[in-house]
UniProtKB/TrEMBL annotation:
The keyword Metal-binding does not apply. Residues 1-69 form the HTH merR-type domain. This is DNA-binding transcriptional MerR regulator. Pfam families: MerR_1 (PF13411). Residues 81-108 form a coiled coil. InterPro entries: DNA-bd_dom_put_sf, MerR-type_HTH_dom, MerR_fam. One of its GO terms (molecular function) is DNA binding. It comes from Paenibacillus tundrae.
Length: 118
């Protein structure tokens, strides 16, 4: 079991972010006898997944929806699958846009290098 500070350090996020995720019911940590938050390995894996979703620009509202569906049970698997498939398409669109931007930048860099004789 890990404390909020340990989890924050392990995952490279703030304790504030963990408390926010709890407030938004994205994660529900366990509590010890003193009422302090405790996180197990399952919590860590879930948080790693949430972090990746955030890094790929999934809105918090959609992450909340996914978490809510997960907590409802296995009968929500088709809805969760649809959320992930939609997000995967959005990530692929982002990657295509970044690739196109990278190609444009490469052309500009080559042009400038040629212009200044580098």
């Amino acid at each position: 079991m890990h404390t909020i500070g340990e989890v924050a350090e392990l995952l490279g996020i703030s304790a504030y972010t963990l408390r926010y995720y709890e407030k938004e019911q994205i994660i529900i940590p366990l509590r010890d006898a003193g009422g302090d938050r405790r996180y197990n390995e399952s919590h860590l894996k879930w948080l790693q997944f949430v972090i990746k979703l955030k890094e790929t620009q999934m809105p918090i509202a959609v992450i909340k929806k996914y978490a809510s569906l997960f907590q409802e049970g296995e009968h929500t698997a088709p809805e969760r699958l649809e959320l992930l498939e939609n997000h995967k398409r959005a990530v692929e669109d982002q990657m295509n846009n970044l690739h196109a931007a990278n190609e444009m930048l490469e052309l500009k860099i080559v042009a400038y290098r040629s212009f200044i004789g580098k």
